[in-house]
Amino acid sequence: MSTSKTVVFVAVATFLGACLTTAFADPPAHAPANGWRKKHDPNYTGYSGTQWETDYEISTRHCNREAIATVVGGVVGGTIAHRVSDEHPVVATIIGAAVGALIGNKIGEKLDEADKGCVGHALELAKPGQVVTWANASTGVRYEMSPGSDRPQNGAVCRDFKLTAVSGQNKSSKNGVACQSNTGVWQVQ
To answer: Where exactly are the structural domains of the chain?
Structure first.
């Protein structure tokens, strides 16, 4: 092949390679990276009909604990319940110490407000049997939450669930029932 043909061949190959790389690198217009979901599906409908702006990745079988921690910040206990029960709910949560006691031992003591947000939002948005996982990097505990079917009690929306927590060699797995006491506020029964 002559030098001029080689130069033309290399130039054409480089151009086509650049075009193909660009074509495959960009997400399609309907991809979440382009904001399609925000424009076309701005709310997630919770188990009890509440509309949520974000699912904190519950639909992908993961809880974005860091995003929930940012929302709940330094707020503790009942104050979160008031924040989520406003007209504009931000994150569902499970309140009270009962969920930590349900898990038991040292693992239950490590459940913080962001973890409770993951439990509450999983109860709110996950389908029955869907497993939702997350890890608390500061405590080293990994969680697995599996909401079950509904169990109405005294007119309240309730759900069975299974919560598993693993810390090092310790593993605790318990079944329970949580009922919604207010919009986005779940309590272990």
So the answer is: 3-34, 43-188
